[in-house]
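Database export, one record per block. Field names are fixed; values are copied verbatim from the stored entry.
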Amino acid sequence: MIEYILLGIAAFWAVLTSIVRKFNLEERGVTIIPLILVMVRTKKFLHIIDSLSQKAKSFWNAYSVLGVLVCVAGIPTALGFFVWNAYKVLSFSPEATPVIPVIPGVTIKISWGLIISIIIIFFVHEFSHGIVARREGISLKSVGVLLLVVIPGAFVEPDEEEMKKASPLSRIKVYSAGSLGNFIVAAVFLIFLLQIPYIPDGILVYETIPGTPAEDTLLEGAVIYQIDNTDVLTLDEFSEEMTAYHKGDTILFDTSKGTVSITLAEHPDIPGQGYIGIRPREHTEHFFILDVFSWISMLNLSIALFNLFPISRVLDGGKITDEILNLYFSEPTSRKLATLFGGLAMVILIINLLSNVML
């Protein structure tokens, strides 16, 4: 399966590269590095950012200061989490938290919750950068969208010369604004999430596993309500009911897509026990809203923390760290320290990403 996904990605990039070059789109603000990155720039929305920056000036000034405080505290917090998790990964501890890159359609199944979350993440993050930049008197050259391999994104491009001439505090305010926006969105939607009652009403067929009985009989997205006339409204009830069946048993599943009969295979980990071959999730009343709000809160928090990782000149956390080092050390020393910290951070990040292989 993965080879078809990779071939599809390669074919998409081949077509995209051909279109950009055939129509000479690079002269219209499109930058492309085949298979790696494409950026589409525009000036069309700059007036919106300018307008927002001129409204509620006191709010945005306080916002930028709060961003500095939160991010300066958040950088060691994010680094500490990843260091501790890397230690647990290297120790093969079952308590290690798997770190999975969000690649829509590859590592994460595409859903409305995921799509809405990504749109909100980039809109809030980049507009926060842009608004604070304008409040600090820094011009914007463009805004735009990008695609990094298969990961979508957005960006605001401040004027580089004006950024260099700005004070270190102004630059730190600009760098901090994006993550603060994501932290706030994560907190707001978590509060919304906690107000919605959690009432399980069945088992969602999140994915069917190829080569199993469910592959051709249960539709992804269906909700299972009963197994042989027994209600299974929670994952515990579903798991307990399935332990009563064995390989070769034929049972009825009452689902939102109709009633289906399935003959069970043998469970890959439990000899003799019946197995249908699905990745189940607990379905609830108000499932769509709960799913969307969960994605928005979780992804905004994850992106905010990841973005504070101190990888020099790449992530905002690295840029903030660079500015702080420049305040206390000479330029050659601060550059060496920034490179050292960035290298260590990359090693720690790679160890965390290997958690899916090592654990």
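Remark 1: Residues 57-90 form the longest helix (34 residues).
Remark 2: The mean pLDDT is 87.
End of record.
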